[in-house]
Amino acid sequence: MKYTRILLKLSGEALMGNQQYGIDAERLMQYAEEIKAAAATGTQVAVVIGGGNIFRGVQAEAFGLDRVQGDYMGMLATVINSMALQSALEKLNVNTRLLSGVTIQRVCEPYIRRRALRHLEKGRVVIFGAGIGSPYFTTDSAASLRAIEIEADVVLKGTRVDGIYTADPEKDPTAVRYPEITFEEVMEKNLNVMDMTAFTLCKENNLPIIVFDMNKGGNLQRLIAGETVGTLVKM
Ligand code: UDP
C-alpha cells in the first residue's frame, strides 16, 4: 500500500445523495463500504465529515441567529453525520471510534491526539467530529489540522467531481482536469480546492491533498494502492 495513514474528508452535502437535506441511507452505506474496503488494506484510516447537509454557520444570519451560535450548530451537525457514519461502519463490523472537538460525554470520546493515534495503531477507523471545535473554521480546516497532528501521509478529499479542473467542469465544457498540480499553481490560478485556511495549513506543512470522486466505487482503494486517481496537489 502506498500510504500508512490517510485522512479522508467527506462533505456533509455528499451524504444527502439526491435529497435536499439530511442523510441519504444508501449513500451512507456506500461510503461505509468504501471505508471498510480501505481499512481492510491495512492502511490506517481517519475520517472528517462535514455538516453542510444539516447546517452551516454562514446560514445563521438568514435565520436571524448569531454567527458563532450558527457555527456551533454546524459543528453539532458534523457530530450527527459522524454518528451516522460510525453506526453504518459498525453494521459492517468495522471497529470505529468517534472523537469530538466539542465534548459530548455520553456520545463520543473527546479529541485527544494520543488517543487518536492509539486507536489508529489498533486498526480502528477514527472519525473526528465537531471540526476543530472552534467557530469561524470549516471541516476542511479540521481535516488539514487533524491530518497534520496525526501525521497522515495525505488528505484525500472525496467530492462529486473527479479532480481539480482548469475551470468549473459543471459550467465550462472545455475545462480540463489536472492530474497533478503544485500548491503554488493552485494559488496563482485561484483554483478552488479547499478554503484558504485549510489549504495554507497543508501547504505550510507539506501535506499533499488528493481531490477525487468519492461516488465512484473503488476509487478510495485504488488511491491507497498507489494508482493515479483525481488530482494530486503537492509542493
Ligand atoms: N464549523 C465550525 N468549526 C469547525 C468546523 C465546522 O464552526 O472547526 C461549522 C461551520 O459553521 C461550518 C459547519 O460547521 O459551516 C459545517 O461544516 P462544513 O461547512 O465544513 O461542512 P461541509 O461543507 O464539508 O459539508
- Main sheet: strand order: 4-3-5-2-1-6-10-11-9
Q: Look at the helices and sheets and give the structural class.
A: alpha/beta
What is the count of β-strands? 11
**CATH architecture assignment:** 3-Layer(aba) Sandwich
Low-confidence stretches: none
Percentage of residues in strands? 15-25%
- Tell me, rounded to a whole number, the average pLDDT: 97
Write the CATH fold name.
Answer: Carbamate kinase
Heteromolecules bound: uridine-5'-diphosphate
Number of helices: 7
End-to-end span in angstroms?
22 Å
Global shape: globular
- Radius of gyration equals 17 Å
Q: Give the helix proportion (percent range).
A: 25-40%
In total, the number of domains comes to: 1
Order of helices and strands: EHEHEEHEHEEEEHHEHE
Biggest β-sheet strands, sense, barrel:
9 strands, mixed
Q: What's the name of the CATH homologous superfamily?
A: Acetylglutamate kinase-like
CATH hierarchy, class? Alpha Beta
GO cellular component, one term: cytoplasm
Binding site for UMP: 51, 71, 132-139
Enzyme class: transferase
Function: Catalyzes the reversible phosphorylation of UMP to UDP.
What does this structure look like?
It is a single chain. The chain has 235 residues and is an alpha/beta fold. The chain has one domain (5-189, 200-234): Acetylglutamate kinase-like (Carbamate kinase), CATH 3.40.1160. It has 7 helices and 11 strands. The strands form 2 sheets. It has a 9-stranded mixed β-sheet, sandwiched between helices. A two-stranded antiparallel ribbon has the order 7-8. Helix 1 (25-40) links the parallel strand 1 (5-10) and strand 2. Helix 4 runs parallel beside helix 6. It is globular, with a radius of gyration of 17 Å. The mean pLDDT is 97. Residues 11-13, 50-52, 56-57, 70-71, 74-75, 77-78, 131-132, 134-135, 137-142 line the site of uridine-5'-diphosphate.
